[in-house]
Specification:
2Fe-2S_ferredoxin-like_sf, 2Fe-2S_ferredoxin-type, 2Fe-2S ferredoxin-type domain-containing protein, 3 helices, Ubiquitin-like (UB roll), 5 strands, Beta-grasp_dom_sf, single chain
Length: 100
């Protein structure tokens, strides 16, 4: 299986090579994908995203995510892009799904 991170922003979609240690949001910013964000600390939740594939390739949710997202959101596959850090190479699909 090829390592690929599919980033689906508001109007731009790109597939990039996932870099372990880097967040979904940082991948989006580095590759000019229109990913909403404000704070990068996990408090605004504008970078909220749906991980439809490859959640096992991400680090465990952070304390900031547990404070901001409901348990049901985790169950549905939601993470905060600024907090969801790539752990291992693999196929990951992330769509920016802000509340607003």
């Amino acid at each position: 299986m090829e390592a690929a991170l599919q980033l689906i922003g508001r109007t731009i979609e790109k597939t990039v090579v996932p870099e372990p240690g880097k967040s979904i949001l940082q991948h989006a910013k580095d590759n000019k994908v229109d990913w909403q964000h404000l704070c990068t600390r996990g408090t605004c939740a504008r970078c909220r995203c749906l991980i439809s594939e490859g959640a096992e390739h991400l680090e465990e949710p952070t304390k900031a995510e547990h404070l901001r997202l409901d348990p049901e959101e985790f169950d549905e596959g939601y993470r905060l892009g600024c907090q969801a850090v790539v752990k291992t190479a693999g196929k990951i699909v992330a769509r920016n799904k802000t509340y607003f």
